[in-house]
Design a protein that fits this description.
2 copies of one chain form a homodimer. Chain A is α+β, with helices and mostly antiparallel strands. The longest helix of chain A is centred in the first third of the chain and has 23 residues. The two termini of chain A are 58 Å apart. The interface between A and B is large, with 121 and 122 residues. Strand 23 of chain A pairs antiparallel with strand 23 of chain B.
């Protein structure tokens, strides 16, 4: 070992010990005949003292140290005269007797501080330096701790972690599969899994009734929003269970993580809300319930008074922002601009203030009597000082989603989305299918193996779009951290599903033949769930992006700018793979 | 939950309880008015009893159950009249009151028994059924337990598990890289990592001084022997350490695993042997030391007596097989055939028996006096009843490797390679380079970042082939379970290495630029090790192949015959990737 202690562990009780430390030079300050160096490693910072009077040679060597030099020092632990209460080692310093430069450093392109002067691009290019920063490193430490706790929890319940292959088969519909040419099987390709879904179902057929895996998954798609081409799932599956069992076990895992990692104890069951209610009251299947601000539908109250926008609308709904009646015209205009942004797409916004005396003052006063406006006020249970914001549109679902964005914006503006407050819920009873405008057919909302609710099975023939699934998502603070479903284990029902989804028998066989064959040999009732590890970690770390809880993330173009990957191959390598690249012009 | 208990947990103390079990029908026996069904799940087997007198309807239903049907039963725990001492649930049976068929099964293509009637190919095609077999499932359970223990051990020592990316850059020399075309970066490819080597070194630069990862690695090469295109490494790296520190920590991990998993306590340090001695005495860098049978060189003793084969040889060496003098002519011929197999390639074998009276009787008696043969006997310290086997050749290294095969064969024949005995050792002081006949140049024996031994650095100029590395392998029972090295952290030394390896500066920059750049910003002294998880598990499970400790392995052609992967892509998918397949004729 190059060291006897780390830079984070020495205390006053170690006084007079002779120790050897290693680390990086965080900063150094020459003050007359003394030089102070902050030595940093993963564990903390320890102050080193060099004195000209004590040893001129070492003093001079110390003065030549640059930022981020790697050094080894031997010296005595002394009590500091001016203590630093901000760091655990702040009571001591090392009077250095020996100094050994293990490696020099060029001047780093940005400062290695919590608040660095480096921009995103620079930090990504030099990610290995960015990772030296406390603020980034602690996210990866948190990630490690969380996976340790996840495994501990699942292992204690008899779950077995099984590694499923990364080189699997591509499916003809797998437009988003990454593929991998095989040298040994010329002209053929593996695919990287978007999830171990079918493999974990095969493990259920095998009798592994409690499976999990912290698994890398891959998706070759545009990386809008907060996505990465490779991401990590806590993937789980169980046999001989019903939806309630899965919800209990994985609610238990969430509570375990909150308790062990954040010190937060949830004693009550998480609230559950049906997908239909989530859409109705929050315009989202992942509502942020740190604040209420439920939607109120106003069709009955506001239609038919000559305000054409409302009269023509298929949906009119609003939210009540407590205490926001004081919003200025400018603030209201900002909100209007906000909902009119192309990403949101509303045509406009109507507002109404509740005055001190209880009267309502709205932006559409010329169409509505105070009596009607009072009815509206009652519908919101609004009080003096509140602000009502209303959107409308000719597509109820679209308008709800716009109103959802407005609700979140108001939540943020009113400080109702505290990162240290966590509200967890289950969204249940998802629709089994959703209509695809693009494909002009029903698509599986989750995947084709999702089981319908038993009581809705008769509807499969008459009105498939109304069938609800035994599917569930866990949502925390407006982030979908995971979800799953009970799967179909009955082959007749599975056949019916494929038919509704427009698969021919041949196509179903081609894509999912191995699974359907497996199901002929005694498939148990089963279901499961996958949590997004990256999302859990960034939620716990209070990050806005999953990127900073990933050691070496890719940018929005799917590039690793540090490694400069992907890149062109040499022709010889392509030849071996029987491939030719033809770039479109 | 569909069940109250598993099929492995009920005991006599549960007598009279009403329980619900689920599982697969292992077998059923109708004996007059009684039918007995063995119900199996992952946890064990429980006997079910159906009686015609008790309930005719259920009795008949029970008689219609086929093998591998999935059923749910409710009934009472009763004491068995004839107990089965071979299984933990053998004292009880369930008198069934309710029987519910959850799913039927076709007749499986092979029996779900420890000794199945299914051949390898069939079992691979129906791997999901193969995994139902106790013998296979317990390997995966062992694998799970081992990874839990590995993480527990490393976490307790402050190691952090960091996920490194699977989509990285390909290197021009990466002939064995799997590559992945990127849709978003037309004409460019990612590569899958053969190991996280450079990434973990970057993490050291980042100050993560104790890193590990249980990581999937990928190699697109011919799958002779016991290899898989994807395999799993326990990948580790440490900073501020020397070789001795790494050996201590990972010897500690080995001991931890042996103790926790196999109940074997190693109190002594593992033996260490230099690479040179391993080659000299065992003809292998991974000697099986469960038995001794060291090589004895016989050049001084047997050369120059007119036996041309020996007189012309660059190497003559032998082994002494204790107590094998009784080997018949036929057995000796078999051994001669064994060493002459093309995979081994010896030209012939000389043998000598030590007779009861101490005289030596050899297959080359006409060339040697008894006096010379006695000298040889002494060199082996051979005793009456022993058999000496001798090989020679014009290439010492090749002949040693042949003798190694013969030694292992004799070890097996003499029952000296007990799967329940474990002998662990470190092979140290590997050469830094090895000569490549193909490339006609020195190649890095491990990788170009391996550090030479400090005392051998002067040799880099004069005689690089003689330079020893700070590299080490752990070998158990003749299997290399892992290895690693101290890395170079000094850029001048790294430059010198690249020069000796024949890299131009440009090429070094092209291939390893990101690492060399990183090293400019304060790289700490570091080193590490990677253990092969698959090998550890198969060693602990007593398997001959790593295949049976992998849930869904690939065959020798790199195919997953269950998934039928890899396979051809649809043209539309290729178009999106700007690729054309051109099969060679």
């Amino acid at each position: 070992m190059y060291r006897t202690h780390t830079c984070g562990e020495l205390r006053l009780s170690d006084k007079d010990k002779i120790v050897t430390l290693c680390g990086w030079v965080q900063r150094s300050r020459k003050m007359g005949k003394m030089t102070f160096v902050d030595l940093r490693d993963r564990y903390g910072i320890t102050q080193l003292v060099f004195s000209e009077d004590h040893d001129t040679a070492i003093f001079e060597k110390a003065n030549s140290l640059g930022r981020e030099y790697v050094i080894q020092v031997k010296g005595k632990v002394d009590e500091r005269s001016s203590k630093n209460k901000n760091i655990p080692t702040g009571d001591i310093e090392i009077t250095v007797e020996e100094l050994n430069v293990l490696n020099k450093s060029e001047i780093p392109p940005f400062t290695i501080e919590d608040n660095t002067d480096g921009g995103d691009d620079l930090r990504m290019r030099y990610r290995y330096l960015d990772l030296r920063r406390n603020a980034v490193r602690k996210n990866l430490e948190l990630r490690h701790k969380m996976t340790i706790e996840v495994r501990q929890y699942l292992d204690s319940l008899g779950f077995i972690e099984v590694e499923t292959p990364v080189l699997i088969g591509s499916t003809p519909e797998g437009a988003r599969d990454f593929v991998v040419p095989s040298r040994m099987n010329p002209g053929q390709f593996y695919a990287l899994p978007q999830s171990p879904q079918t493999l974990k179902q095969l493990l259920m057929v095998s009798g592994f009734d409690r499976y999990f895996q912290i698994a890398k998954c891959f998706r070759d798609e545009d990386l809008r929003a907060d996505r990465q081409p490779e991401f990590t799932q806590i993937d789980c599956e169980m046999s001989f269970v019903e939806q309630e069992d899965i919800i209990n076990i994985f609610e238990g895992m969430a509570k375990h993580l909150f308790k062990k990692i954040k010190g937060i104890e949830f004693t009550e069951p998480f609230q559950r809300i049906t997908w239909a209610d989530a859409m109705k009251y929050y315009g989202s299947d992942k509502p942020d319930l740190r604040f209420d601000m439920k939607f109120v539908e106003l069709m009955d109250i506001l239609k038919g008074f000559g305000f054409k926008v409302f009269d023509d609308a298929a949906y009119i709904g609003g939210i009540c922002a407590k205490g926001a009646a004081s919003y200025t015209r400018k603030q209201l205009d900002q909100l209007t601009d906000f909902v009119k942004r192309p990403q949101i797409g509303a045509k406009g916004m109507v507002y109404a203030r509740i005055e001190e005396d209880g009267t309502v003052k709205s932006s559409v006063d010329k169409f509505y009597t105070q009596e009607t406006l009072q009815k509206m006020k009652e519908a919101f249970a609004a009080e003096p000082g509140d602000l009502i914001l209303i959107l409308s549109g000719d597509d109820a679902m679209k308008t709800r989603k716009q109103l959802c964005e407005l609700r979140l914006e108001m939540g943020s503006r009113l400080g109702l989305r505290d990162k240290d407050k966590f509200v967890c819920l289950w969204v249940i009873d998802f629709p089994l299918f959703e209509w695809s405008d693009e494909e002009q057919r029903l698509m599986a909302m989750h995947h084709p193996f999702t089981s319908p609710k038993p009581e809705d099975i008769p509807l499969l023939d008459e009105n498939p779009a109304a069938v609800r699934a035994n599917a569930y998502d866990m949502v925390i603070n407006g982030v979908e951290v995971g979800g799953g479903s009970i799967r179909i284990h009955d082959s007749a029902l599975q056949d019916k599903m494929f038919k509704i989804l427009g698969f021919t028998e041949e196509r179903a066989q081609e894509q999912f033949g191995f699974l359907m064959n497996a199901f002929k040999f005694g498939a148990p009732p089963h279901g499961g769930l996958a949590y997004g590890l990256d999302r859990w970690v960034s939620l716990f770390a209070g990050l806005d992006s999953i990127r900073d809880c990933i050691a070496f993330p890719k940018n929005n173009s799917g590039r690793d700018v540090m490694l400069d990957a992907p890149s062109a191959l040499e022709q010889s390598q392509l030849d071996e793979l029987n491939l030719e690249v033809h770039l479109k012009k």
